Amino acid sequence: MASCFPCLSARKKEVPRSAPANAHTSSIPGAVARTFSFKELAAATRNFSDAYRIVGREDGLYKGFLKSINQVVAIKLQHAVDPGGSAEQDNTEFLALALMMSGLRHPNLVNLIGFCADGRHRILVHEYMPFGSLEDHLHGSSPGKAPLDWNTRMNIAAGVVRGLEYMHDKGVLYRCVKSSNILLGDGYRPKLSQYGLAEHDQLSAVAAITRGTWGTMAPETVMTGKLFPGSSVYGFGVVLLEMITGRRATDAPHDVEDRHLVASSAGWQTRRCRGDIRPWTCRRPSKLLRCASHKDHAMRAPIGTVVTALSRLAYDFDPPESSHHAAPN
């Protein structure tokens, strides 16, 4: 299966086929996620008021405070059940999603706290990430916000690839590795979001390109719509290049051939390395970038190799005193 959004391809776990219509009163065997009623989630967001919307991320995402768990959370409206469809089938698919997501627990994944399958409503509740996305910090225009330094960027990259390795080990292929899906918590710890599988939100690879995802999608996924173990490695390579160059993955310069970050990065060591990221430091991850973003998925570095390389880059950097300048925005 190779749906474009959200960013996951994994074998579904079996759930009871006789899931009740009001699934918020049921439990999922083996799951750690809680169940919430629609009334409780509506109260947490003041009936999903625009004042509680998390702007700049995915649609239907709200910040709310749940008194029952004394926690600020992110509440994602998945979909409403089609009145003309099969409620039993919809419950089965949605509970399979909740079960699968609740079974993925890692310091570099945004954890699922719970879900709501109350009546026609299908809602997921995640932990809230207070520092926004990596995209916000790389390309945001907030006045007075200091750019991320080199060490912070490399530590973020190392955390992202550890999350990807965990999902690879679980047999999960994460499609949408991009800076807007990498959220930051305390200490700038990165966490991958958008790893749910929703049958109601399938898009083709062509549709993903149209919506601006193509810059981080592996060539084989764009061509075939299929995922391979190396597909997420490619996306990670693009994000790493984005962190180093300060350019968006899908910048739109005047030259159409220069629009794709990977295709236009042949001279990135000399043209884009500025501030703390001097040309001599950029040469250190250049081999890793070439291996991760190779156009042939069979030639890309295995995810375990990328983890090892990024761990070294994150902790071995020791710039000379004269090189302390602002990092690229």
Automatic annotation (TrEMBL):
Residues of the Protein kinase domain: 37-313
Cellular component GO terms held in the UniProt record: membrane
GO molecular function annotation: ATP binding; protein serine/threonine kinase activity
Coiled coil: none
InterPro entries: Kinase-like_dom_sf, Prot_kinase_dom, Ser-Thr/Tyr_kinase_cat_dom
Compartments, record wording: Membrane
SUPFAM superfamilies xref list: Protein kinase-like (PK-like)
Keyword terms of this UniProt record: Kinase, Membrane, Serine/threonine-protein kinase, Transferase
Cross-referenced PROSITE patterns: PROTEIN_KINASE_DOM (PS50011)
Record's protein name: Protein kinase domain-containing protein
